[in-house]
Task: structure prediction
Amino acid sequence: EAVAETAARLNRWEFMVVAAPLAVEGGTGSPVNVLAIF
Result:
């Protein structure tokens, strides 16, 4: 919903979605921070 509101406000409907992992040294998995870049 927040992405749709931002897209409508900017009048831009194409964006890149990036999943940035948490930097954990020696880790085998981590939560991700999802980013929508307009």
